[in-house]
């Protein structure tokens, strides 16, 4: 049985806070690029971009893009994955800019490692930051998020489910026992 840990208003508050923290850390929206990792990371990145444009009138319209990391993953042989998605970088590229990677859940760190490899093929940013809606712990690599909506320590037997209106028709984060665990 799933336990809801974040509802629509909690997610909105977390993304608003993350948007403010990104602007504060970057000292505005100049030379800022936000790249969402498909699938839900792209939606979260778009929402953060919209918040930043609302907060900072001088923010560029083309601020948000997407970064597919499928072919950069080191676990393709072990885990079936979805078909590669399109990578889209805002006009002007990433060279010399601060890139904020956005993902829904930070777990082992392997997706972010793949994202860093993908960024290396796109250019040389001034800095790379990480924003996640949920940090659940259990890192396998030395990766830490700079901007976190909710720290949610969890067991490896549990599954964190992020559902967003645009994909799932519902807005929530829930935690439940993974299939086959605890039996």
UniProtKB/TrEMBL annotation:
Q: Which reaction does it catalyse?
A: UMP + diphosphate = 5-phospho-alpha-D-ribose 1-diphosphate + uracil
Question: In its UniProt record, which GO terms are filed under biological process?
Answer: regulation of DNA-templated transcription
Q: What class of enzyme is it?
A: transferase
Q: Which InterPro entries match?
A: PRTase-like, PRTase_dom, PyrR, PyrR_bifunctional
* Extent of the signal sequence: none
Tell me which Pfam families the record gives: Pribosyltran (PF00156)
Q: Gene3D superfamilies given for it?
A: 3.40.50.2020
UniProt domain Phosphoribosyltransferase: residue ranges? 5-151
GO MF terms, alphabetically ordered: uracil phosphoribosyltransferase activity
Motif PRPP-binding, residue numbers? 99-111
* Top-level taxon in the UniProt lineage: Bacteria
- Does the entry feature the keyword Lipoprotein, yes or no? no
Enumerate the UniProt keywords alphabetically: Glycosyltransferase, Transcription, Transcription regulation, Transferase
Q: Does the keyword Chloroplast apply?
A: no
EC numbers for this chain: 2.4.2.9
Give a short account of what the protein does: Also displays a weak uracil phosphoribosyltransferase activity which is not physiologically significant.
HAMAP family the record matches: PyrR
Name the family.
Belongs to the purine/pyrimidine phosphoribosyltransferase family. PyrR subfamily.
Q: What is this protein called?
A: Bifunctional protein PyrR
**Source organism:** Agreia pratensis
């Amino acid at each position: 049985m799933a336990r809801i840990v974040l509802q629509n208003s909690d997610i909105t508050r977390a993304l608003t806070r993350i948007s403010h923290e990104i602007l504060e850390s970057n000292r505005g929206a100049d030379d800022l690029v936000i790249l969402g990792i498909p699938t839900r990371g792209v939606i979260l990145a778009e929402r953060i971009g919209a918040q930043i444009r609302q907060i900072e009138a001088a923010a560029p319209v083309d601020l948000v893009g997407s970064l597919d990391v499928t072919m950069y993953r080191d676990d393709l042989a072990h885990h079936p994955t979805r078909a590669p998605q399109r990578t889209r970088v805002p006009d002007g590229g990433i060279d010399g800019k601060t890139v904020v990677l956005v993902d829904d859940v930070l777990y082992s760190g392997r997706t972010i490692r793949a994202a860093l490899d993908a960024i290396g093929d796109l250019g040389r940013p001034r800095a790379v930051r990480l924003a996640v809606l949920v940090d659940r712990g259990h890192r396998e690599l030395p990766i830490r998020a700079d901007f976190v909506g909710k720290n949610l320590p969890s067991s490896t037997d549990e599954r964190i489910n992020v559902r967003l209106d645009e994909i799932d028709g519902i807005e929530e984060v829930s935690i439940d026992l993974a299939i086959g665990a605890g039996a």
